[in-house]
Amino acid sequence: MITFRVRGRTVSVLYSPPPDMAAAGAKLSVVLDRRRPLEPEHVVGLEAEAEQRRWQVHLPAELYDGRSHHIALEAKSDGRLVGTAAFLFSGAPQLLASRRQTGAAEISPTKPSPTKPGAPAPVVEQPSRATPAPLAFAPSCRDGRERLADFLRSEFGGDTVERVRGYFAVIDALMSDAEQGLRREHLDSLTERLRLLSKAADDGRPIDASIVLPVFNSIGYTIACVLSLFEHGANSRFEIIVADDASSDETAAVFGAIGGVVRCVTQVANQGFNGNCNRAAREARGRYVAFLNNDTFVLEGWLDELLAPFERFSGIGLTGSKLLMPDGTLQEAGGIIWRDASGWNFGRNQDPTLPEFNYVKDVDYVSGASLAVPKAVWDEIGGFDERYRPAYFEDSDLAFTLRAKGLRTLYAPASPLIHHEGVSNGTDLAAGIKTHQIANQPKFIEKWQDVLATEHFPNGEEVFLARDRSRQKKHMLVIDHYVPQPDRDAGSRTLFSYMKMFVDAGLQVSFWPDNLYRDKDYLKALQDLGVEVLYGSQLVGRFPEWIAERGRYLDYVFLSRAHVAINYIDHLRDHSSAKVLYYGHDLAYERLKQEFAVTGREKIKEEINYWFELEQKIWRKTDVLYYPAREEVEAVENAAPDKTVRKFSIYVYPESDIAEARTRLGQVPNPAATVMFVGGYRHRPNVDGALWFVREILPLVQRHIPEIRTILAGSFPPPAITRLASSNVLVTGYIADPVLEWLYRSANAAILPLRFGGGVKGKLIEALRFAVPVVTTRWGAQGLPEPQECVALADSPAEFAERLIETITVPEAARERARNGLDFIEQEFGYTTVARRMALDIPELGRLGLGEVRQSDHRRGAARDPEAAAAKRRVRGRRDTAARVGG
Asked: What one-character-per-residue DSSP string does 778-822 give?
């Protein structure tokens, strides 16, 4: 059996032979990337004993190229292979540099996809706050703490850097060799500081989490850890249980004197890690028990994000944190257990900001250094299995035990901490408590041998599937122009909703934004769902390599937008047999034809030809095509008769949202007449529509309703739009979703004064979903099967003004249209309806359409609403209409 420990460029290897074999004659060889043996001078033999053999392997500098390398360790005796192990190693090149590197490729958050020479530039909405992403991990300093400071400053800010420096100062001041008088002074000061912090945290709310700190001596580390808990705070209410395992230092005295939310539980005799944790957890009063090593500093969000998956998903039994080294490199992003019960700290020594380490995922186990479990579940299973006393393998066994009960173990990357590995038990596998890491492995194998044999890969194989336990899942790749910004544009809202649905159905989803920008404002929402969002300079220009490596794992690819899809479709077809699904958003060339008819701009003719040719290229190479409007589906069917073309619901609404909107249908309209138009102003039809309304329609309305107020809401209004602002016209610019929802609830009508455009309009669907009466043109109503039942229609300024005046002054008729519109939303955009339709091409979504998977509690309350029940009867009566919508 081979066990190993990686620390920087040095790998410590221990070989323990079977009882009938001597270790002295064993030799170690190292194979790089399954091809090249490492030169013998990099492998240094240490003492040889009958029971074991030890080596140190010095990894060459060439491995520090920012890419993952497969390192295989092979022990041989008399030419026969007697032991193997393997791990992935990725060294950031900056770690070998003495100064910050310059000239590295930066990723522009606003750079659109290239188009062919001479082609008109595509009109594409681009992400906002367009500042180039800094290199995520480019330390310039010479020692670990300064490298850590650079990382913390980049990811958390300067305040976190100063706090962490303070924790190191506490440890340094309380080292055992410190002058005793000065040490006592420091202890008294720190005890008073902790007492005040603990008192302030004792706010009387019910306890969410009991944080158990198993402690044996090392008072400086424990104080620093508790300080980090208080200073980085949490929205969750917590108590701290210092589990003192018969320490010989001041632990009991200091923590027994703090009070507030801190309690000290001292063992009469040393129980070891397992026994100490089990006994201390009996004192826990929180809904969750969180175990936290005392040699850690927690960072911003640690507790809240550790507990969040329990609320976000169903069937979760265990969560674990992202562990960082004291130099800022990654220690562990979840753990992998191989068939031989050896384990990997996934991502060890790598850059912690890389995409593969930052999405919520299922894992084989999480480290006992930081994990959380519901208290009721913990009590039911009886805590850590004490066959592993005093320590090691108890965390892996806990995850396996919970999984056997049908409960998942999730890695929570947004729950970060710094872990000073080996403070309690050292790192030498051949000495002290660490020897139990080897001794307990056979016990673990004996207990879980059937599971290991059937559910786990051989050591180092199929890492892509092992890292997130996706062996039994279908894999999907989604590609769009940038990380979705759901509160800024309709296309983003669409893609986000569908990716959530794909995850709900059990797919393992990866998202490749065309600009590869690490958009910190928006990517976490996807990562929290379990989507691996790919980004960073290391991927620029490397999609062909990436898909060549991963293409064999993909079952589905979901492409979005022709000008983006064209850059990937050939590579996908070359390297993957996945079903390729394409969502076209709208038929750009048809929209441009309408614009030309209105504006007469000759330049548009060139754009029409370009987009028509581009769309056709995509159609030829995809399996299923989706468009929002029935007219678009029919047009594509005529142009590509050999392809499967389906109508696509641009939004997906939980049934609870629709039920809640029904409760507002009977409310009295706003007495202050208010109308609103919502749109992103990087889209030309929206600019034209807003100008047309204010200049030509609004004056006609004001003759009858002088006090009418108009709200033009949406991102990136150009000067032509901002100049429309007046005492009765408000131009908002970007507004957050809660504000937009409040505006919808306050408006008497939503207006869509569009004179050209393509596809179903997101602003129309949103207004109908909020049960707001709508006045629009035939272009704005595109996609509605019987628009006159749901909206007021008008194409000229006089007609539009007349319809708007009627909507405001005769609210009963407008409310009936809004009710019909909400029925339409339910039958076309309800969660289960959309899932059932998409299951024609992605069968895994069928469970959602049958209601077999819980929608994150979105359905609660719908059945109790009488208006919702009446609506269901109306929907059943409209099935003929639904059939004419397309499918």
From this structure: TTTTTT-SSHHHHSEE--SHHHHHHHHHHHHH-HHHHHHHHHHHH
Asked if 776 contacts 790 with a C-beta cutoff of 8 angstroms, the reply is: no
Exposed, middle or buried by CB within 10 Å (0-12, 13-18, 19+), for 705? middle
Closest alpha carbon to 662 in 374, 858, 871: 871
Q: Which of 641, 388, 357, 650 is nearest to 518 (CA)?
A: 357
Q: Tell me the two tokens of residue 32.
A: 């790089």
Place of tokens 């429309």: 724
**Cα–Cα distances in angstroms (integers) from residue 741 to residues 146, 735, 774, in the given order:** 46, 10, 15
Are 757 and 799 spatial neighbours (Cβ–Cβ below 8 Å)? no
Tokens of 789: 């039942």
Query: Tokens standing for 681?
Result: 């102003």
In the chain, the N- to C-terminal Cα span, in Å, equals: 58
Element holding 363 (H helix, E strand):
none
Angle between helices 811-829 and 866-877 (to 10 degrees): 70
Q: How far apart are CA 84 and CA 811, in angstroms?
A: 77
DSSP element (H, E) containing 548? helix 543-550
Name 176's Cβ contacts closer than 8 Å, sequence gap at least 6: none
CA distances from 380 to 182, 245, 291, 401, 620 (A): 47, 24, 17, 11, 57
Q: Which residues in 470-483 are b (16+ Cβ under 10 Å) and which e?
A: beebbbbbbbbbbb
pLDDT interval class at 854 (50, 70, 90): low
Region 500-522: what's the mean pLDDT?
Answer: 96
CA distance 832 to 73: 50
Over residues 325-375, the pLDDT tens digits come to 999 999 999 999 999 999 899 999 999 999 999 999 999 999 999 999 999
Cα–Cα distances in Å, from 808 out to 141, 239, 663, 672? 66, 56, 20, 10
Q: Positive or negative CA dihedral for 388, 347, 341, 366?
A: positive
Give CA 220 to chain center in angstroms: 35
Contacts of 542 (CB under 8 A, 6+ apart): none
Could you tell me which residues come within 8 angstroms of residue 483 by beta carbon, excluding any fewer than 6 positions away? 127, 511, 513, 517, 519, 522, 523, 526, 533, 535
Task: Answer whether 750's CB lies under 8 Å from 711's CB.
Answer: no
Dist CA 453 CA 398 (whole Å): 18
368: phi then psi, degrees, rounded to nearest 5: -65, -10
Q: Pull the structure tokens for residue 652.
A: 């997906």
Residue-wise pLDDT tens digits, 398-423:
999 999 999 999 999 999 999 998 66
Specify the amino acid at residue 324.
L
Backbone angles phi, psi at 45, to 5 degrees: -80, 135
Q: Check: CB of residue 469 under 8 Å from CB of residue 399.
A: no
Residue 622 · residue 569 · CB < 8 Å: yes
User: Distance between CA 222 and CA 176 in Å, rounded?
Assistant: 14
Q: Is 476 helix (H, G, I), strand (E, B) or coil?
A: strand
pLDDT band at 560 (very low <50, low <70, confident <90, very high): very high
Q: Record the tokens describing residue 272, joined without a space.
A: 């070891």
Contact assessment for residue 736 and residue 130, using Cβ atoms and an 8 Å cutoff: no
Please choose, from the candidates 806, 812, 816, 811, the residue with its C-alpha nearest in 3D space to the C-alpha of residue 701.
806
Distance CA 175, CA 197 (A): 23
φ/ψ (deg, to 5) at 140: -115, -5
Q: Is the peptide bond before 390 cis (omega within 30 degrees of 0)?
A: yes
Cβ-proximal residues to 196 (8 Å cutoff; 6+ apart), any chain: none
